[in-house]
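Quick review question:
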């Protein structure tokens, strides 16, 4: 770096000096020429005027008078003297000062006296430089001599020397200033930032804890700085992946990471590509004034699948529902997402308003959603909705098939109740596609499902898949029982498979999950969770000691009203919590085109209002209802700082809010109060389990959560975190894909087995499955999930919250 600075400085000095000298040379030449011209001009004027005066006296031959005239004349400034010569070159008169210096007639005077032409010449007289101007003298037209006007020209040289001197000094100052400035610029803009960058990179390389996560500002080298930031991010990711791998080897545990999933998927799929079809897209482009915003929708499905797609690349086919969605795709209706770090392809499918109304709002959300969730909202079944549902399934299937064109043995993960018919549609055209469908919501018992006029078609469509996934075993059992009731098929109860028309479908539970952040959340130095909560409450305009949080789409399955009633009961029963406990409900408005959802939203608002009105004092209120969708990042703050998280679903396939809350609690604090009617309850027995219909019990659980001692909170949270960490979303996807690939490999064996006369009845008897077990919601937890939930019930009894 020093050598570079030296070279730069020398180049600058040489360059500036040469340019300055060159320009000075021209300046001196120009000035000199000007001064000479000026002198010539003055000499000419003087010469002509003096010649006119001298000629009459010359005629008279009066030498004395002639001398007086030249003496008077020769007295002027810068005039060295005047002399008059005969045509033969003899001096007639000469001013006294000039006489000793000019002993002979100058050649130029000689010429003028001979050819009658005035002329001038610069010559040297001894040490001095002079200018001699010669004028011919006439008498009656005849040449009678020559007049010499001699000017001192030394001042012109003096002037030139002065200019050179000044130039030299100017160059000196300039070189000094420019060198100084250059050195400072180099130091501030190049050497300094590069030194900082080097220091930063060293810290990064040696993984110093003090190393700053942001790249130093490199001013001129911004593109380099950006690249360094990317490089740093990759290095950090690689290091953390390597660490995780090392830990994995060390503990021989089965922790799944994005990297492990992507290796696993590549290994399993080989050359095949991964496709996902889901109604909801991971990014909705919406118009906001003049700009377009990419919004991540409130959807458990999106929360779970987005990291998987990021890890494996592939194509997500979904309904383009945003008002700016069409503007953001290419001519094949595709775009790469996430917008700020593209990792996979989103292919949008367009639906008309009428299709959306019938397929999405109608059949999917007014029919199947309340049919599968036992939450006491009556399902609506309309023929026109069903027709739209069929057509939309066809439309999405076509889009998927188009995306798969020319691809060898692709893999499709279809998602949820919007696409029950799609697996068979795909298989009919492309039997080589390995198809799995994951049902993100519960599957009710066959009696409940039996009210659907199209149950046969739905079940048949699903059985087109090679693999059907549910969150928990009891949903699988309910599904198999439904199949048993409505279709001709052979069910293997032991292996949970259905054989129908030479095709085998495996039905299995895959408890979905979330990402589990391993790295500590970056926070300002000295900022504690307590301080973060103080700041958050201040933003909410509330003063409170304890904070509870609930995060949901405003959906009647989530038990939001029951939750509010429990909070009211807590405050009634235990007035000590008044002015001390505030519950923050984040409610993302959902499916508001459906009247039931509109009414619910209004009801939730007015219930919060009523309870607040009843208890509110000064700056405290019991419920803060934030009616808008919050992004993942915003929600993390609430999860991190709350004393408890309340999940009161009346019925829920899994409920990822419970797992997100656990994943966010790096401090191993916070209590989860969880409805026993969620799928998550099977994996999180250390939560306080409640029946959300039992307001009294939920209120008690709230009190218990608020009064739980730190150690107990820690033990419970540690255990829950271990489960969520190990059973994270990457493991879910890895297991699903592995199973799907196995299903294809086993196909030939499956055909053999189906010819061996193996009967479903025998199988059911053999394993002792009690098919009458799922009474209302799903099979009893003990039957369905075994030891874990049994242990949970034991533990719950011991803390007084068992039900
Ligand atoms: C549930 C469903 C998802 C759905 C989400 C949001 O989690 O299982 O398929 O995306 O709700 O609902 P929405 O209708 O807004 O997509």
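Suggested answer, residue by residue:
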């Amino acid at each position: 770096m020093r050598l570079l600075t030296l070279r730069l400085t020398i180049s600058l000095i040489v360059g500036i000096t040469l340019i300055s000298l060159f320009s000075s040379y021209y300046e001196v030449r120009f000035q000199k020429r000007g001064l000479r011209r000026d002198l010539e001009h003055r000499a000419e004027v003087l010469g002509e005027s003096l010649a006119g005066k001298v000629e009459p006296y010359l005629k008279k031959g009066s030498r004395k008078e002639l001398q007086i005239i030249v003496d008077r004349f020769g007295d002027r400034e810068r005039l060295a003297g005047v002399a008059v010569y005969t045509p033969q070159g003899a001096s007639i008169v000469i001013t006294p000062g000039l006489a000793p210096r000019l002993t002979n007639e100058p050649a130029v005077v000689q010429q003028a006296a001979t050819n009658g032409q005035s002329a001038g010449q610069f010559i040297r007289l001894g040490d001095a430089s002079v200018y001699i101007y010669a004028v011919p003298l006439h008498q009656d037209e005849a040449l009678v001599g020559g007049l010499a006007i001699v000017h001192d020209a030394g001042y012109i040289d003096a002037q030139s020397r002065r200019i050179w001197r000044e130039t030299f000094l100017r160059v000196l100052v300039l070189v000094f200033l420019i060198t100084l400035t250059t050195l400072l610029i180099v130091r501030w803009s190049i050497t300094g930032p590069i030194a900082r960058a080097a220091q930063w990179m060293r810290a990064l390389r040696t993984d110093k804890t003090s190393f700053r996560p942001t790249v130093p500002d490199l001013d001129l080298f911004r593109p380099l700085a950006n690249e360094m930031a990317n490089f740093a991010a990759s290095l950090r990711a690689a290091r953390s992946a390597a660490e995780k791998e090392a830990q994995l080897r060390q503990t021989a545990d089965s922790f799944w990471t994005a990297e492990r999933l992507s290796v696993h998927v590549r290994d399993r799929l080989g050359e095949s590509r991964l496709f996902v079809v889901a109604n909801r897209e991971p990014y909705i482009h919406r118009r906001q004034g003049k700009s377009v915003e990419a919004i991540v929708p409130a959807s458990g499905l999106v929360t779970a699948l987005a990291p998987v797609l990021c890890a494996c690349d592939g194509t997500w086919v979904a309904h383009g529902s945003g008002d700016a969605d069409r503007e953001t795709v290419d001519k094949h209706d595709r775009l790469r997402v996430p917008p700020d770090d593209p990792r996979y392809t989103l292919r949008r499918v367009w639906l008309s308003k009428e299709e959306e109304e019938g397929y999405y709002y109608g059949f999917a959300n007014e029919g199947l959603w309340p049919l599968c969730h036992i939450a006491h909202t009556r399902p609506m079944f309309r023929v026109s909705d069903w027709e739209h549902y069929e057509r939309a399934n066809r439309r999405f299937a076509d889009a998927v098939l188009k995306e798969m064109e020319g691809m060898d043995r692709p893999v499709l993960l279809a998602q949820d109740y919007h696409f029950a018919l799609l697996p068979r549609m795909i298989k009919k055209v492309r039997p080589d596609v390995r198809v799995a469908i994951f049902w993100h919501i519960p599957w009710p018992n066959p009696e409940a499902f039996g009210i659907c006029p199209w149950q046969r078609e739905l079940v048949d469509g699903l059985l087109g898949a090679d693999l059907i996934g549910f969150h928990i075993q009891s949903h699988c059992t309910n599904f198999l029982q439904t199949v048993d009731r409505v279709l001709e098929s052979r069910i293997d109860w032991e292996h949970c498979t259905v054989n129908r028309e030479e095709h085998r479908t495996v039905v299995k539970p895959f408890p979905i999950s979330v990402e589990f952040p391993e790295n500590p959340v970056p926070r300002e130095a000295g900022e504690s969770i307590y301080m973060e909560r103080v700041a958050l409450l201040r933003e909410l305009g509330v003063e409170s000691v304890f904070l509870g949080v609930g995060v949901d789409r405003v959906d009647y399955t989530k038990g939001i009203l029951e939750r509010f009633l429990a909070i009211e009961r807590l405050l009634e029963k235990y007035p000590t919590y008044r002015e001390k406990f505030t519950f923050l409900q984040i409610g993302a408005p959902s499916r508001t085109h459906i009247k039931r959802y509109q009414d619910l939203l209004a009801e939730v608002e007015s219930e919060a209002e009523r309870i607040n009105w009843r208890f509110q004092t000064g700056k405290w209120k019991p419920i803060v209802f934030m009616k808008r969708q919050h992004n993942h990042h915003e929600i993390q703050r609430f999860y991190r700082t709350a004393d408890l998280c309340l999940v009161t679903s009346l019925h829920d396939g899994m409920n990822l809010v419970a797992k997100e809350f656990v994943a966010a609690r790096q401090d191993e604090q916070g209590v989860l109060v969880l409805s026993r009617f969620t799928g998550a309850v099977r994996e999180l027995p250390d939560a306080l389990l409640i029946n959300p219909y039992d307001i009294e019990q939920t209120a008690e659980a709230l009190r218990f959560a608020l009064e739980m001692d730190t150690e107990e909170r820690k033990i419970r949270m540690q255990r829950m975190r271990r489960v969520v960490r190990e059973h994270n979303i990457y493991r879910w996807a890895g297991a699903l894909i592995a199973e799907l690939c196995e299903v294809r490999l086993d196909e030939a064996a499956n055909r053999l087995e189906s010819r061996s006369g193996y009967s479903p009845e025998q199988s059911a008897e053999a394993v002792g499955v009690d098919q009458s077990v799922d009474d209302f919601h799903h099979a009893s937890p003990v039957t369905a999930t075994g030891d874990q939930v049994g242990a949970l019930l034991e533990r719950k009894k011991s803390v007084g919250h068992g039900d």
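Why it works: Residues 745-803 have pLDDT under 50 and may be disordered. Residues 280, 297, 299-301, 416, 440-441, 553, 590-591 surround 6-O-phosphono-alpha-D-glucopyranose (CB under 6 Å).
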